[in-house]
Amino acid sequence: MTAPLIKAEGLTRVYQLRRGLFGKPTPVRAVDGVSLNVMPGEALGIVGESGSGKSTLGRMLLGIDPAQAGRVTFESRSMPEFGTAEWRALRAKMQLVYQDPLAALDRRLTIAAQIGEPLDIHDLLRRTNARPASRR
Predict the structure, then answer these.
(1) How much is the pTM?
(2) Distance CA 123, CA 73 (A)
(3) Across 18-132, where does the E strand assignment appear?
């Protein structure tokens, strides 16, 4: 049997919400004990109300936000520490795609420029096949 590409076990993230200047902090559970497996070739869609923790969960899966409890593994290895060279190399293999098309797409750029941007950033195109950024 194939191992999960990404595996999350018991992810939890709690924020402290303060009402007013002198209000007592109240814990808000954005993500509470989430576990999941994503197998190679699968896509994961997370659906829920605004404020239900979808983006927080996605950011924890990518190692952008730390989990206060639980752990994430990618290809059976622990997620590298945020900002390290190993983390940046791994991030070139995965991304979040947000549901809001107005936030996800930049209307000032052509579709070709938007598709080409991550290829340029991660140097995935041979320079002979790439168009200069100034011509996009």
Answers:
(1) 0.70
(2) 25
(3) 26-38, 69-74, 77-78
